[in-house]
User: Which sequence fits this backbone?
């Protein structure tokens, strides 16, 4: 007998616990269904840890949090081998990366060597400790955070490594009415634990369903056109705060890679499934496009010099490509 | 059937494309007449004939934008010729559409529409032509009957040609003698145009949905669904590049049969092939409910 549980049930359960961060919940679920990882950028205190912990609890999965610091070592993440005196042999101790949902907090605070260890594990879905490789659990989702407010003493992630994240989500402050609900709910007691609404087997089944979601030819062309526009955006304009009209192509050093094209397709399928459909729509593509593109485009210094945000340029490019 | 439906879709798509333009800019025109006519009131099955759209405006313009052709669901579109003539008295735009009917009976052709800013009062308006009802006669008599020998048939054709030839020569000689000048080629016989008071009432969304339903029922295919979706989007004023989310976000479309219709059409345009027949059936049902919601 097949389970009737759907990704929508999981979203509803998470929404009951996490207030005002529907975008984060959706990003987590999209990554889960697409078998990818999420990079979150936003100030502290926006329920990122709670979202991760709740997701793991709702799936009866294991949750681990790694606080990235400048003195962190790769073995602190993937694990190490210790000598067992009683057995007179080396034993492997698995690191915190061996969990279903991993929160890599402030990933840009650790040096490149540690970042590489994490990103390699994310890509290969296995970690090598000593002579042996160990497969990571399935499902395996990494949710890495970066704090945009405090950049002193940080190590910027190279673009090639950023590309490993399926999506990057900008987390903003909740609206006032949601903040009132947060106050009512958490001021008198600690967070309510999320009840389990699905299993890891459900997640694997949903992933298969997500891969089977239909993407029409018109949508495929739309996706390719969106990504191509990031590489040649001379005809797209954006208005700077000064009032000047700028060509977006002049603000970009390099556009998104074909991995962005794949990411757009994966995420669109996942969003359709989350919405209960077995076919994707232009709305799906457009909704996920900023998340799939914003960390894959290299903007020049002119963007900041003109007082523009990367998202303004990305929005202009998305708006310039007519949806089918 | 397939050719006829394809023609219907082509005309529908043409109308949809024209509609997209209408959302952008409207020309300022003084419409003097806007007429749809046919070069025959009784066309025959499988014999091409012409629909002639004539627009007269007081301004001198080189082209006419935002002109939407009628849905030709029951006719096959063979070709389209446009001619714009400007002079001191304004501009005459003439579009000749070659079509052919494949079945006998009455065919109703809806009006063509024009969206423009009325130069008389500066307001954006929609003008409509008259509609047409044509009575298509049965198949034309066959020249060669089954079983007749080739020689017999050839003799008949030769005799007829000879007879027609004598007739033409006699008419030409008579005309030259009577008028004392060289004969000119006979012009296309067009019924006298009926001048329509401008502006005519705007076609209701339900009427437009009725056209769409005819098209979707005639050809239950993806291109047809996409064309109908484009037309319905134009009907609700959606611009190029907008998504369903944008359109449904509007206050007047948040609920009701129109919302249901747009969602159903979106499904028929993007769903997988196995689901397409069910999606189109669903869209036809949604169109019927929308049409029925007028009362």
Assistant:
């Amino acid at each position: 007998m097949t389970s009737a549980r759907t990704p929508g049930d999981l979203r509803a359960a998470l929404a009951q616990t996490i207030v005002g961060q529907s975008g984060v919940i959706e990003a987590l679920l999209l990554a889960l269904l697409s078998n990818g990882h999420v990079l979150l950028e936003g100030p502290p205190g926006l329920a990122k840890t709670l979202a991760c912990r709740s997701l793991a609890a709702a799936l009866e999965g294991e949750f681990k949090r790694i606080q990235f610091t400048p003195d962190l070592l790769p073995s602190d993440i993937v694990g190490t081998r210790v000598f067992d005196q009683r057995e007179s042999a080396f034993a492997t101790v698995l690191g915190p990366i061996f969990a279903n949902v991993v929160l890599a907090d402030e990933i840009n605070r650790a040096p490149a060597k540690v970042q590489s260890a994490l990103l390699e594990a994310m890509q290969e879905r296995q970690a090598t400790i000593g002579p042996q490789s160990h497969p990571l659990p399935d499902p395996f989702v990494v949710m890495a955070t970066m704090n945009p407010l405090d950049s002193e003493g940080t190590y910027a992630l190279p673009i090639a490594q950023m590309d490993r994240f399926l999506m990057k989500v900008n987390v903003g402050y909740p609206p006032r009415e949601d903040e009132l609900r947060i106050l009512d709910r958490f001021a008198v007691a600690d967070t309510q634990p999320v009840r389990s609404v699905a299993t890891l087997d459900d997640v694997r089944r949903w992933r298969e369903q997500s891969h089977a979601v239909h993407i029409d030819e018109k949508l495929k062309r739309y996706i390719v056109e969106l990504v191509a526009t990031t590489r040649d955006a001379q005809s797209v304009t954006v208005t700077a705060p000064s009032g000047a009209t700028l060509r977006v192509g002049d603000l970009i050093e390099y556009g998104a890679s074909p991995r962005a094209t794949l990411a757009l397709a994966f995420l669109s399928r996942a969003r359709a499934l989350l919405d209960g459909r077995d076919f994707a729509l232009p709305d799906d593509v457009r909704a996920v496009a900023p998340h799939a593109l914003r960390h894959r485009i290299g903007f020049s210094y002119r963007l900041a010099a003109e007082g523009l945000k990367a998202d303004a340029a990305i929005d202009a490019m998305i708006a310039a490509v007519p949806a089918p | 059937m397939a050719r006829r439906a394809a023609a219907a879709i082509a005309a529908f798509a043409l109308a949809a494309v024209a509609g997209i333009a209408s959302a952008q800019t409207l020309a300022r025109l003084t419409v003097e007449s806007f007429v749809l006519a046919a070069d025959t009131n009784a066309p025959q099955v499988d014999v091409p004939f012409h629909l002639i759209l004539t627009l007269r405006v007081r301004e001198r313009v080189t082209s006419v934008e935002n002109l939407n052709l009628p849905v030709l669901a029951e006719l096959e579109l063979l070709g389209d010729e446009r001619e714009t003539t400007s002079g001191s008295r304004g501009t005459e735009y003439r579009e000749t559409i070659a079509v052919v009917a494949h079945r006998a009976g009455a065919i109703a052709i809806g009006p063509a529409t024009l969206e423009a800013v009325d130069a008389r009062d500066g307001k954006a308006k929609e003008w409509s032509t008259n509609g047409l009802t044509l009575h298509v006669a049965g198949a034309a008599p066959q020249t060669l009957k089954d079983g007749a020998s080739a020689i017999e048939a050839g003799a008949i054709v030769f005799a007829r040609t000879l007879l027609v030839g004598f007739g033409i020569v006699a008419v030409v000689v008579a005309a030259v003698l009577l008028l004392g000048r060289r004969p000119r080629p006979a012009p296309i016989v067009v019924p006298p145009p009926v001048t329509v008071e401008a502006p005519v009432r705007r076609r209701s969304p339900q009427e437009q949905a009725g056209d769409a339903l005819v098209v979707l029922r005639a050809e239950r295919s993806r291109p047809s669904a996409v064309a109908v979706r484009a037309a319905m989007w134009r009907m609700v004023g959606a611009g190029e590049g907008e998504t369903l989310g944008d359109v449904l976000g509007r206050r007047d479309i948040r609920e009701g049969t129109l919302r249901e219709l747009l969602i159903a059409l979106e499904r028929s345009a993007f769903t997988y092939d196995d689901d397409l027949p069910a999606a189109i059936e669903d869209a036809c049902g949604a169109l019927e409910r929308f049409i029925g919601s007028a009362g």
Summary: Chain A has 13 helices and 13 strands. Chain A touches chain B through 16 residues (CB under 8 Å). The first strand of chain A starts at residue 38 and ends at 41. Chain A has a mean pLDDT of 87.
